[in-house]
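tool_call predict_complex ligand=S-adenosylmethionine
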Amino acid sequence: MLKVLSALRLSYLNSLKLTARRSNFSTECLYDESITKFISENTEIVVDHNLTPEIKLRLFTPNCRFWFERPEFWPFEDPYWAIYWPGGQALSRYLLDNPGVSLGKSVLDLGCGCGASAIAAKLCGANRVVANDIDSVATLATCMNFKLNGLESPVCVTDDMIGSDPGNFDLILLGDMFYDEALSYNLHTWLEDCIKTHKSQVLIGDPGRAQFEELAFQSRLKKLAQFELPKPVREENYGLNCSSVWAALCKPRHLSGHESF
Ligand SMILES: C[S@@+](CC[C@H](N)C(=O)[O-])C[C@H]1O[C@@H](n2cnc3c(N)ncnc32)[C@H](O)[C@@H]1O
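tool_result ok
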């Protein structure tokens, strides 16, 4: 049974890869009717119990089969997009509370997952939104969530952009991306380049994960906001009580005359 599932998963993933058009970055959103149906059937539309009740999202809830099912039965990559992470929640809340931050901007949501921060930026009038996730099922879920909120699909990129020149974005969003040591290290170096080369504004949502707090980058971060997590989010993320939004500065705080980008 497991072998069949693995083969299914591989063939799905290969077909996903083939649908992507190759350019610098592939910017075609996967559309696959069977996967769309699968996502609809295995998620629930959630409008509350998180920091942004204005945004509707298809997520796993206790009413969904895969909330309890053994993970090996899930036929795709780990469904990180089916969870609305505390870092992403804080970042999206901050964007909605401060619409001027994304108004008229070109925005990259790197590691978009369910796409909530990209949606928040678009709802606030971002000019162009690129949703990037190396999991093409996540970008499909993001497109479904854009539609759910009455928005046109964003530009989707499924390549790993970390380490490459992403192009000229006014604003780069990172919701809960510091959950893995190697990823955190790579992000750190790449963000420095993005800020130096393009003067991009970088906003990070993080609930105090160890890999984030240990960043050499810490002296270049300024906390913009902190949000207490709602009870259901605290219960799902044992030990986390709040989540914060940070801006990355051009220079370390002690050398920075003014604390903007
Ligand atoms: C912890 S989840 C956060 C999702 C979303 N930002 C949120 O806060 O709800 C991390 C996401 O990053 C994606 N990811 C991991 N490595 C990545 C990379 N190198 N480039 C783009 N996305 C990546 C994963 O597939 C996953 O969807």
